[in-house]
Amino acid sequence: MFAFRLCLAIGVVHPDRLLARLTSAELAEWMAYFKLAPFGDDHQSRVVAEVGAELSNRWRNKGEPPRRSKDFLPFTRRPAQTPEEQHKAFRSLTGR
To answer: Of the candidates 41, 35, 27, which has an alpha carbon nearest to the alpha carbon of residue 74?
Structure first.
């Protein structure tokens, strides 16, 4: 998966083409660099989520619980709803 992420970052069409041009030492250097300074959509999403949480908490209403950065991430997994939560959500949508 790292090779795909690196391709997106440096504009190479496919990892097969990238890996044909890189030595294993060069790939290891890119991986080490990524650990020190992550790049790509995941990293950018985390940065934006941190800013969103900070701003939201700065202007939240009294008594409102603080927001966390994970509340602002687009693809976080949420726990499965209980049957009661599903019924409540359905009733709120249908008015039944």
So the answer is: 41
Predicted TM-score (pTM) of this structure: 0.48
Q: Which of 56, 72, 74 is CA-nearest to residue 64?
A: 56
Question: Which region, left, alpha or beta, applies to residue 11 given φ > 0 means left and ψ of -120 to 50 means alpha?
Answer: left
Over residues 22-33, the pLDDT tens digits come to 999 999 999 999
Asked whether residue 28 is assigned to any structural domain, the reply reads: yes
What is the span of the domain harbouring residue 18? 2-36
Judge whether 72 and 53 are in contact, CB under 8 Å. yes
Return the SS3 of 36.
Answer: helix
Q: How many domains does the chain have?
A: 1
